[in-house]
Amino acid sequence: MTISVENPVSVHEDFTTQTKTEELQSDSRIPMSTIPSNDEVFLAPEVNAFGREFRNYEDENNERQKSVEEFYKTQHINQTLDFVKKMRHDYGKLDKMVMNIWECCELLNEVVDESDPDLDEPQIQHLLQTAEAIRKDYPDEDWLHLTALIHDLGKVLTLPQFGGLPQWAVVGDTFPVGCAFDESNIHHKYFKENPDFNNPTYNTKTGIYSEGCGLENVSMSWGHDDYMYMVAKENGSTLPSPGLFIIRYHSFYPLHKAGAYTHLMNDEDKENLKWLHVFNKYDLYSKSKVHVDVEKVKPYYMSIIKKYFPENLKW
Ligand SMILES: [Fe+2]
Ligand SMILES: [Fe+2]
Question: Can you tell me which residues bind Fe cation (predicted)?
Answer without folding.
Answer: 126, 151-152, 224, 250, 283
